[in-house]
Amino acid sequence: MRPSLCCAPLFLLLLLHLAFARPLFPLPSKTKNEEKKPIQTFRPYNIAHRGSNGEIPEETAAAYMRAIEEGADFIESDILASKDGALICFHDVTLDDTTDVAKRKEFANRRRTYEVEWFNVTGWFVVDFTLEELKTLRVKQRYSFRDQQYNGMFSIITFEEFISIALDADRTVGIYPEIKDPVFINKHVKWADGKKFEDKFVDTLLKYGYKGQYMSENWLKQPLFIQSFAPTSIVHVSDFIDSPKVFLIDDISVRTQDTNQSYWEITSDDYLAYISKYVVGLGPWKDTIVPASGNYLMPPSDLVARAHAHNLQVHPYTYRNENQFLHFNFFQDPYNEYDFWINTVGVDGLFTDFTGTLHRYQELTSPHRKDETANSLLVKISQMISAYEGL
Predict the structure, then answer these.
(1) Per DSSP, which regions of the chain are E strands?
(2) Is residue 18 within 8 Å of 153, Cβ to Cβ?
(3) Distance of CA 263 to the CA centre of its chain
(4) What Gene3D superfamilies does this protein's entry cite (predicted)?
(5) How crowded is residue 192: how many other Cβ atoms within 10 Å of its Cβ?
(6) What is the pLDDT of residues 83-116, one digit of tens each?
(7) CA 159, CA 135: separation in Å to the nearest integer?
(8) 310 is in which domain, residue-wise?
(9) Nearest to 139 by CA among 64, 68, 189, 73
(10) What is the pTM (predicted TM-score) of this model?
(11) Total domains, the chain
């Protein structure tokens, strides 16, 4: 049986990827039926936002593998579609910010202007490239203040490759894929069988055995949260897959891309009662839960309390280590931020760019139960030895 690639040193995997220029992860996974350490469910979920993208360029195989190595409970990805209908892991509908497309002369004539979520956007769009063409692009770090040494090393990966990374891990790792910009994708990509983007998304999950309601036996074996900013997509896929879903919520100034509803409409008690029929949780931008002014936090809203009253989890985004993202209340210490959100606000999961930081914080403050059991056993042994020596 092929050993799990997630156990190999990261630098070796990078060299292999560059040397062979082919997918690191044969499909389907050959190790998914092995008995593995289960996912933890006793503390808020550590959700690797686009992988460990604080260290390695986002949505790449290396970023996801690094997140697993660092202790992520879930690896999160944005799913889009290529011109020829392949599902890929990529955040923006344009390729400009995180690939080398602007430097590729052969694609100079692909620049377009399309309407995206009520605005005209100009750039190189994923929907104008085939999967084969997308695979030739090299991914780069989004933020200039983060490590640039991996720029150009990695290619865009497919949804299936992403799934295989999770299934090939040496422990149970959940996936948290987003149905990204479905209105835009369905407008520009057509499948021969007449199915929609959401249908292809679900078909891929079912192909790899993802099914089951939250905390069911099937879910615990292959944990999954499906997320989307588009409520109509969530309702649509609910007819075809019973896995738990999370409704994402943007800034208070942003209307829903499919139903054109305001933030205030979709966070009302009436709407929470409606959407709770289809989802197990909300994924709000964290500054809508606790607003900030002058980089200082203001009093928290009641969104978390109201969501919990509707039996909905809350998984805010995005937590980042850098000082420019940390409000002054936290004294430039990400541990202080995690402490506030977990113990004061009471969230149930956190999307983070720095999986290792959140994992270390949680291991210090709420260690894994097996560690607690081991510590308790050591204490008991010490007590027994002391008692024996005292005889």
Answers:
(1) 45-48, 74-81, 87-89, 112-116, 119-123, 174-179, 226-228, 245-249, 281-284, 292-293, 296-297, 313-314, 349-352
(2) yes
(3) 22
(4) Phosphatidylinositol (PI) phosphodiesterase
(5) 6
(6) 999 999 999 999 999 999 999 999 999 999 999 9
(7) 13
(8) 45-92+157-365
(9) 64
(10) 0.89
(11) 1
